[in-house]
Amino acid sequence: MTVKAQQRPLSLKLLINGFIIVWFVLAAFPFLWTLWGSFKVELDFFSIADWTYALTGERTKAAHGSAFTDAGYYGSWVQEEFWKHAINTLIVCFFVVCTSLTIGTLGGYALSRSSYRYTVWLLIAALIFRAMPPITLVSGYLLPFFEWNVWGILPTTIIVLVAINQPFTLWMLHSFFQKIPKELDESAKVDGCSQFQAFRHVIIPVMWPGVITTGLFSFLLAYNDFAVTSMLLSEQNRTMVPEIAAYLGTTYTEGNVMFAVAAVVSATVPLFILVLFFQRQIVSGLTAGAVKG
Amino acid sequence: MQHRTFFWFFFPTAAAMLLFIALPIVSVFLQSVFAPHEAVLVEVESCTPLVGCTTETQVDHDATTELRSNQPLGRFVGLDIYLDRGHLAVNEIAAAWQATDSMGDFISKVHNLPLYRALSFTLTFTFLVTPLLIIFGLMIALAVNSLHRHLKGLMIFFSLLPMIVTPLIGSLILFWMVDSRGVVGSALVALAGDPDFSMKASTGLTWVMLIIYGVWHSAPFAFVVFYAGLQTLPQDQLESAMIDGATRWQRVKYVVIPHLMPLVTFVALIQLMDNFRVFEPIVGFNASAHATSLSWIIFNDLGGETRQLSAASASSVLTILGVAILLTPVLIRTWRDFNAKS
Q1: Nearest residue to A110 (alpha-carbon basis) of A235, A30, A208, A196
Q2: What range(s) does the ABC transmembrane type-1 domain occupy (chain A) (predicted)?
């Protein structure tokens, strides 16, 4: 194909570049703006008098002597003890990812290696479970959890999030294990390994790329969840997202919106870093289900 | 793999899903046909000399506590909760039908009932956001695909952000910007020339705001899927179309889009289900005065001091029915794929 025939006319080039710039601004600007504004005082972040104050920080200079202030971060992290909720998020995410990968790997491997008909039904059941909005399940949890006195603590939430995670994990890992040739573990079994030994010595060493991709999505689900964590955790055990939601009720009246802004920026940073380092895995995970089907 | 081995490999994940997804669904169904016990009332006759005897009705606390602990589910009420004002509101609708003469009047009366109000927003949101995000995602994919190699990675990075970021946080970030004191909000005030202009003030503008958020949040998913599809475009078909004199637009219409069609179906099915559960943006945008969704109703019933489990359960069951309808085409498609493979 000649390169010349593929060249675009100038007007189309302009249109495409213009559209790209518009999308870039839509996608990136809100985050950059909020990051910039989180170091200002409320009167600058919400600039009633003049919107350029948000850039120059006139009121921040007047109040703190410099155009940038960490008052919002100090207020939320130290005063309102946001660090406790950050630690809760860390605990929840760590255990959800580890548990759901462990049991999901075993289940996904079994599904990919069994040739019986019931695997299809199990996968379809998992698909139905995946479609259930978590908030509809929450009304089913509350009564038993109150009865057994396990409401409000982190382990309960971790187990619930692991279970909600399982259908997706199973589907991802199932399709991933199917790409690993069956001959690998078959030959290990011929050499006298049991199924579990074959899994341990032959499959585990080669499964990491798929497991890491799946783990990323498990992490995102646990980190981003609002419906389950806000309903099942008591006030001091809250993770970051429900805590930010709780700020909205209290800080609006106290005039400490900047605490919420600082907390929002703090909670976005880990996600930013995650995309920075795992962009390729996230893209491949998103397309895994689609390109095959 | 032997049945036995399969069972032990699959047991942990199956147990987790049965206990925490399947059983809760059953328990939600059960709770939705039971209502909390009413307090046990007793008639007490108190006689005072010279005045005479009066009977008063009192709450028997001991009996009430005993009844509640004996039957924690409450009393069986059948479908009453489904039919009450907070849900399907059969009586109210019948009354409205008889009392009103014009269709518009009737619709506005029905729109005041909580479930129908939520349903109308949920459906509008689902069926507007899904096609819009597919079109928008396709446009981004086509545009990014034509970029220089080094710019592509950067664009994919920034495009992923709106989708990866927590929905509640993403909607808060946008909300602070469109707030009438925020940067976009004050620009809109200047544009409208009305100092009292606010996106939060009217129902229509709130819906527009939420729909824009929905497209912003989900378009990256469509973009990534379509972008991956564009990498496997059949080059020979494109070339022969060019030799046959197809214009650029015709090549997109007759080669690229048919090639991406299975992906469009995939994205549409997934997004219909995901948009149907719209919930976090309503909390983030503080929009519940103008727009409520089915998930938000459940959340609202469960939260607060009085946890209305029965009401929330009934709404949950109705939501699950809605999801089931949207899920059917996905299931049929999956079933067909499996049969084609084996």
Answers
A1: A196
A2: 86-277
Q: Which residues contact A60 (CB under 8 A, 6 or more apart)?
A: A39, A40, A41, A44, A66, A67, A68, A69
> 3-state DSSP call for residue B55?
strand
Q: What is the pLDDT of residue B317?
A: 94
Residues contacting B172, CB < 8 A, separation 6+: A244, A248, A260, A264, B284
First-to-final CA distance of chain B? 17
**Range B115-341: architecture per CATH:** Orthogonal Bundle (1.10)
CA nearest B9: which of A194, A130, A182?
A194
Question: Does residue A107 sit in the same domain as residue A190?
Answer: yes
- E strand segments, chain B: 34-35, 41-48, 52-59, 75-76
Contact residues on chain B for A48, CB-CB shorter than 8 A: 181
Q: Which ranges of chain A would DSSP assign to H, the alpha helix?
A: 3-6, 10-37, 42-45, 53-56, 58-64, 71-73, 82-113, 118-131, 134-148, 154-179, 182-190, 195-198, 208-224, 227-232, 240-254, 257-292
Contact state of A139 with B309 under an 8 Å Cβ cutoff: yes
What is the per-residue pLDDT for A5? Answer: 53
Does pLDDT of A196 surpass 50? yes
Give yes or no: residues A233 and A139 share one domain: yes
Residue A216 carries which side chain, given as an amino acid letter? L
Q: Kindly report the nearest CA distance between residue B203 and chain A, in angstroms.
A: 21
Nearest to B334 among A28, A107, A127 (CB): A127
Question: Using the beta-carbon criterion (under 8 Å), do B156 and A30 form an inter-chain contact?
Answer: no
| Residue showing tokens 């014009």 | B102
Given pLDDT bands bounded at 50, 70 and 90, which one contains residue A89? Answer: very high
Please tell me the predicted confidence (pLDDT) of residue A251: 55
Closest CA to B83 of B326, B320, B318: B318
CB pairs under 8 A between A and B: 280
CA distance B132 to B182: 26
Q: What is the pLDDT of residue B148?
A: 83
Tokens, residue A292: 């095959």
C-alpha of B270 from chain center: 13
Q: Do B228 and A287 touch (CB under 8 A)?
A: yes
Mean pLDDT computed over every residue of chain B = 88
Average pLDDT for residues B29-42, to the nearest whole number? 83
| Domain-embedded: residue A5 | no
Please tell me whether residues A178 and A42 are part of one structural domain: no
Q: pLDDT band for B107, please (50, 70, 90 cuts).
A: confident
Residue B76 corresponds to which amino acid? F
Q: In this predicted complex, what is the ipTM?
A: 0.91
Confidence of residue A253 (pLDDT cuts 50, 70, 90): low
Contact criterion met (CB < 8 Å) for A244 and B168? yes
CB B286 within 8 A of CB B175: yes
Same domain (yes/no): A114, A256: yes
**Same domain as A164, residue A30:** no
CA angle (B307 as vertex; B303, B312 as ends), nearest 5: 85
Question: pLDDT: is B57 or A212 the higher one?
Answer: A212
Question: Distance (Å) from the C-alpha of residue B68 to the closest C-alpha of chain A?
Answer: 12
The boundaries of the domain holding residue A42 are 10-69
* Angle between helix A118-131 and A154-179 (nearest 10): 130
List CB contacts (< 8 A) between B146 and chain A.
8, 16
